[in-house]
Design brief:
Blueprint lengths: L1 E5 L3 H7 L7 E3 L2 H7 L3 H11 L4 E4 L5 H14 L3 E6 L2 H12 L3 E7 L2 H9 L4 E4 L1 H6 L4 H15 L4 E4 L5 H10 L3 E4 L1 H7 L3 H17 L7
Parallel strand pairs: 1-2, 1-8, 2-3, 3-4, 4-5, 5-6, 6-7, 7-8
Helix pairs in contact: 4-5, 6-8, 8-9
The structure holds erythose-4-phosphate (E4P).
The site of erythose-4-phosphate has 11 residues, from helix 7.
Length: about 220
Amino acid sequence: MKFFIDTADIPEIEKLIPSGLIDGVTTNPSLIAKSGKDMGETIKTICSIVSGPVSAEVTATEYNKMLEEGEYLASLAQNVAVKVPLTPAGLQTCKALREKDIMVNVTLCFSAAQALLAAKVGATFISPFVGRLDDIGEKGMDLISDIVIMYENYGFDTEVLVASVRNTQHLIDAAVIGAHVSTLPPKVIHELYKHPLTDKGLKAFLDDWAKTGQQILPK
Ligand code: E4P
């Protein structure tokens, strides 16, 4: 499973690169606003430090303007994936950008029917939002399962990018289902390492080792 990092915070991305876990980045207008930085510069910088896909989202809602924004964002770097909303204009833009061989991430997906439409217009990624579905009392992970089965049934190439991930369990459930990608907020990535038995076990090993007075490296 590929891990994308869901942030526009460049220092956070730089900190996580050495972990070797990061296969790409997703941003959205809210994350750009939170960063307080210029969008174009932010996307260019992220693309220069991450070799995988970097999602940059359009903000126009009408087809012609959306296409123009998408083409501009794609011109910023070769690894930009243009993010478009799951609307008729967004899907039309997706089709046009895919015909130019530009990667497209179709976002704000909340139903299996919507995911089917995105695959039919050749989306590179579909982003179903599990956390926001859970928030309204639905089972976000059921949607992931339906989309993975549906795409397998018809051999669609569109990758299922699990978005709005809030915790470790979301990631595990998505991986068990076989989703291709999860985009994770930095906080969730840090939590993945943690287990109380790891901490307890390490402390016991180090305490016992200290009692031996030995050092591994020759003096
Ligand atoms: C990523 O592509 C999405 O925009 C993001 O995961 C949404 O997450 P949120 O529901 O926590 O805002």
